[in-house]
Recover the amino acids of this structure.
């Protein structure tokens, strides 16, 4: 049965017309050796320590009485549906926050998140991983609850800049190769003008470290955030964009050099922004779990055996459960203050999806958050499927051909409905 949520939420309280923000941070690094996410050739080999810690960075905004949480994770993907539900239940009860964008940076040096407490799916063999999930969920919820407790009057600014030499299209052989060069920033200052938060939205795979490195690392994203926080004094959040076909430009050097260079671009953009008070803060949100027919049957014994060898059996068993009733990505769209759109989707979207959505939306600023509120693998464009290759083939892009376009069209329609340009469908 199709699971869906459809909600239109708008803050309209005349007695609470203020913009507030708060931030908090928690460590989400596993404390025990666990399987690592991101490279199939590791199979179920366990991690071997920590290169640099993994964090959950939380930002809570109160927009005239309506609250929204944004969490940037130094993880390969967002938590599973089950974890997301537990996190959201807690922040709803303890902070009054109904909706959230929880996005992974897509580091390939984080822990596997898909195992479950069942025989043949994690229990017994990977109990340390299951213990980690409780640790991770609590840390994310703790960060959001603390950020909510620290809400204070704030000012807001957003902006983006086109930057060259930082990402490349790793998939297509056809020119011109789509590549999202938009570096977007949301800057929030306190009412007194002190930097409070810098949210960075950029599209490039954090894969600077080889699969043979079995230590946890946030990759270039950790370096970027550390540099931004040191220079501004603000909390630094990173949410990965539509990076399905986007690699880093390796001419920038290793992960430290790349993160430092990209941070310099962020800081230049950040300095050009002048946060303003928000006279009429508002928040509109829609969210729905969509449904697509899978292109690959993981319950086929031959296919399942292939996946078992490529990854490991317990992981594949959970994927079989995930896609038993189709591929069901979660789409979350928010309109902030009537002119800033946030679009979050649970997968690796090819860059042209985000490029075209930004062109078509006609809002002041659009942030596209990939790997957000779940993970349903790759969503290539139709032309990418026709070309084939990694990221476009059914083995890693299980949703029906055209699913990405349908998701983008749905997001676009919702934005225009929120703007009052398209009427809502009658129930």
């Amino acid at each position: 049965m199709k699971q869906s949520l459809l909600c239109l939420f708008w803050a309209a309280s005349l007695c609470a017309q203020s913009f507030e923000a708060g931030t908090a941070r928690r460590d989400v690094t596993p404390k025990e050796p666990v399987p690592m996410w991101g490279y199939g050739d590791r199979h179920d080999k366990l991690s071997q320590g920590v290169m640099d810690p993994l964090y959950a960075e939380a930002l809570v905004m109160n927009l005239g009485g309506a609250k929204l949480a944004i969490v940037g994770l130094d993880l390969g993907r967002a938590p599973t549906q089950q974890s997301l539900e537990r996190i959201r239940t807690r922040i709803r009860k303890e902070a009054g926050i109904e909706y959230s964008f929880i996005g992974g940076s897509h580091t390939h040096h984080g822990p596997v998140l898909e195992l479950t407490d069942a025989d043949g799916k994690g229990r017994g063999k990977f109990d340390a991983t299951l213990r980690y999930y409780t640790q991770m969920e609590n840390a994310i919820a703790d960060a959001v609850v603390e950020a909510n407790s620290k809400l204070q009057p704030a000012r807001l600014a957003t902006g983006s800049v086109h930057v060259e030499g930082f990402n490349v299209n790793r998939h297509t052989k056809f020119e011109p190769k789509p590549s999202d060069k938009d570096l977007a920033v949301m800057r929030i200052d306190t009412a007194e003008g002190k930097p409070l938060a810098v949210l960075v939205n950029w599209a490039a795979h954090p894969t600077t470290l080889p699969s043979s490195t079995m230590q946890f690392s946030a990759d270039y994203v950790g370096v970027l955030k550390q540099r931004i926080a040191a220079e501004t004094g603000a909390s630094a959040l990173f949410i990965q964009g539509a990076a399905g076909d986007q690699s880093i430009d390796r001419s920038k050097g290793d992960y430290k050099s790349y993160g430092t260079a990209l941070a310099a671009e962020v800081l230049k953009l950040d300095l050009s922004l002048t946060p303003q008070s928000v006279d009429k803060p508002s928040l509109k949100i829609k969210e729905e779990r969509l449904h697509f027919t899978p292109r690959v049957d993981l319950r086929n014994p031959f296919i399942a055996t292939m996946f078992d060898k490529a990854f490991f059996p317990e992981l594949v068993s959970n994927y079989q459960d995930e896609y038993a009733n189709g591929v069901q990505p979660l789409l979350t769209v928010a309109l902030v203050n009537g002119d800033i759109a946030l679009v979050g989707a649970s997968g690796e979207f090819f860059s042209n999806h985000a490029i075209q959505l930004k062109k078509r939306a006609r809002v002041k600023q659009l942030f596209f958050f990939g790997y957000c509120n779940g993970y349903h693998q790759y969503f290539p464009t139709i032309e990418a499927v026709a070309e084939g290759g990694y990221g476009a083939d059914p083995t890693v892009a299980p949703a029906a051909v055209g699913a990405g376009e349908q998701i983008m069209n749905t997001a676009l329609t919702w934005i225009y409905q929120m703007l009052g340009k398209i009427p809502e469908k009658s129930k």
Notes: Confidence is low (pLDDT under 50) at residues 1-15.
